[in-house]
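job 3f2a | input accepted
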Amino acid sequence: MISRDDFVTRFGGVFEHSPFIAERAYDAGNIAEPLTSGSVHGALVAIFRAASADERLGVLRAHPDLAGRLAIAGKLTEDSRKEQAGAGLDRLTPAEHARFTELNTAYVTKFGFPFIIAVKGLGKDDILAAFETRIGSDRDAEFATATAQVEKIALLRLQSMLPET
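job 3f2a | predicted structure (165 res):
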């Protein structure tokens, strides 16, 4: 059986900067071996969904802005850097970057957390279109969408680390 420390070290970053999810999943005894992307995802998501609204908001707020200041400064987590680069967000024109910055600012002002989307398989135009659509949502709908996207990002990260179920 994997130790708690090893589990948290390996999976504590799956939910961006939120190791408490891996800690609680391990402590709940819901970790079955062999570890698969599906089984670990199920255990982590159960904890994420059971977390308080404030804790889930904290997880959302732990995500970086897309093509934002952390990306420019080279301070994204390795997972976030790869995800954003895979979608072409590291190769924006100045006009595209200005649009992302404008949308990021408006979105955070309206909702209190950054725009979150699982970018794998998407291009910058797809992301911008989703951004422009979702900014018109109400806060409850957008909170639900953002948390669903966080869960999808976690699954994609786990699928790159572990065999499928």
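job 3f2a | Residues 28 and 43 are 9 Å apart (CA to CA).
job 3f2a | closed
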